[in-house]
Specification:
TIM Barrel, 5 helices, 9 strands, binds iron/sulfur cluster
């Protein structure tokens, strides 16, 4: 597999925000978001056997794992047996994905945290994937301006989304503008700041 890094930290976003979590960041991505904050994970990474990753997991004995990137689904073939091993041990796993690749094959092993890319990112997710989400999955809109908010509003109004929906300001933008919009519209979302940026952990 192509690995960018493995590290232990607090989960900064999503339904497990604030929980200690082992992050497995896979390398490589099929998008180039304007505000990408993990540019170091877009390259080739280092080759590593899935068994070596699993040894590291067993050594650290985490209560929660997040597989992130980059775009982890680019390595779906090798990811599936790794997830099956984690599942057999009963460790809960979240997979963070940019919403451009079909994740259904991996859902038996993990919760999906699907990004819906907004206009300010310069990229676009596959909105048809929203219909495959289950209640235990989730969706995240990272928004920076009014155009993003209007886009998110349109998507939320147009698609059946079974999982919880999070709305997060791009770090550095004024979160009050987003908060005021959500209060005015009462969109069915949970507002969330990126905890890892605020407290300065990875
Ligand atoms: S999908 Fe994620 S990792 Fe890929 S370019 Fe966008 S923000 Fe960066």
């Amino acid at each position: 597999m192509k690995l960018a890094e493995i590290f232990f930290s607090l989960q900064g976003e999503g339904k497990n925000q604030g929980k200690p979590c082992l992050f497995i960041r896979l390398a490589g991505c099929n998008l180039h978001c304007r505000w990408c904050d993990t540019g170091y994970a877009l390259g080739e990474g280092r080759d590593i056997a899935p068994d070596v990753i699993l040894e590291e997991v067993w050594r650290r004995n985490p209560k929660l794992i997040c597989i992130t990137g980059g775009e982890p689904l680019l390595q779906e073939g090798e990811l599936e047996p790794l997830l099956a091993s984690l599942s057999r041990k009963g460790i809960p796993v979240d997979i963070e994905t940019n919403g451009t690749l079909d994740f259904r094959r991996l859902q038996p092993y993990a919760s999906i945290c699907m990004d819906v890319k907004c206009p300010s990112s310069g990229e676009m997710s596959d909105l048809l994937l929203l219909g495959a989400l289950r209640p235990e999955d989730s969706v995240k809109f990272v928004v920076s301006d009014k155009a993003d908010l209007l886009y998110a509003t349109e998507v939320i109004g147009s698609y059946r989304i079974a999982g919880e929906i999070f709305m997060t300001p791009v770090y550095g933008t004024d979160p009050r503008v987003i908060a005021e919009y959500l209060l005015a519209t009462c969109l069915p979302v949970r507002f969330q700041l990126q905890l890892q940026k605020i407290i300065g952990v990875k």
